[in-house]
Amino acid sequence: MDASYITPFMTSIQNVFSTMFQLPVSIGEPSIKTDKKATHDVSGIIGVSGEMVGTIVLSMPADAAVSIVNLFTGMEMDPDSDDFADAVGELVNMISGNAKAEFQRKGVSISCPSVVIGEDHRVSTPSGTACVMIPCSTDCGEVVLEIALREAAEVDETQANAA
Amino acid sequence: MRILLIDDSKTMRNIQKSVLKQLGYTDIEEACDGQDALNKVPAFKPELCLVDWNMPNMDGLTFVKTFRQQDKSTPLIMVTTEAEKARVIEAIKAGVNNYVVKPFTPDLLSERITETLAKCGVGS
What we know:
The complex is a heterodimer.
Chain A: H1 7-21, E1 26-27, E2 31-32, E3 42-50, E4 52-60, H2 62-73, H3 82-103, E5 108-110, E6 114-117, E7 132-138, E8 141-151, H4 152-162
Antiparallel strand pairs in A: 1-7, 2-7, 3-4, 3-5, 3-6, 4-8, 7-8
Helix pairs in contact in A: 1-3
Chain B: E1 2-6, H1 10-22, E2 27-31, H2 34-44, E3 48-51, H3 60-70, E4 76-80, H4 85-94, E5 98-101, H5 106-119
Parallel strand pairs in B: 1-2, 1-3, 3-4, 4-5
């Protein structure tokens, strides 16, 4: 994956967390994800389509997610409630949209967010696309951004070669 | 003043509602997508709409284009994560009066609302 795809997400999570609820984020060393299992129990997921394709996942341990959602919404929320999932979805939506803007390409679209909550779930990424994990440390706990993106043209080429 | 909030995220509608309440606006109706908003417009008769871009069923841009076919003057503010220059231009061409990129601070949102209402000559 092109390294220039990663930096916008690092600045974006810092921008979203600090602007919306004044929570500083320290970014750790990115690494390639090898495990197919979700890193944590709460996943906010955005699909990317158009000139670039892939997925963006905000993965959070349940207790960190509860604290972050509490700061974001100003309310204590039950992790099983629709409102909790809505807040997690809006966070990953803002992080993805903000990062996408850095690419300055009109032909890239992001999906409405999906949220999965539960132990040992798995989020599939497009086959053959490396997934980069960006560890993010906050006062609410450790969260991870997982970016699996590539140019749509590369996908077309791979499919043509496979045919 | 009657204000229509159009966003598929209840969290975001609540945040915007709280900014509006701080500005003294309490006559607020909510819609969860563009189609829901179009259904509510005839009865609610909004004097200002805050509209998200990416929503299921009908997105914000389609709402703006459809709304503008019947109403050229009611102020519309796009509040969205879509921050590319090309998107902003597309929204302005479709008929929005102002643009707020998420994430935003409450101060920025209130500034844009006040500025838009003043520019459009709408009193509170």
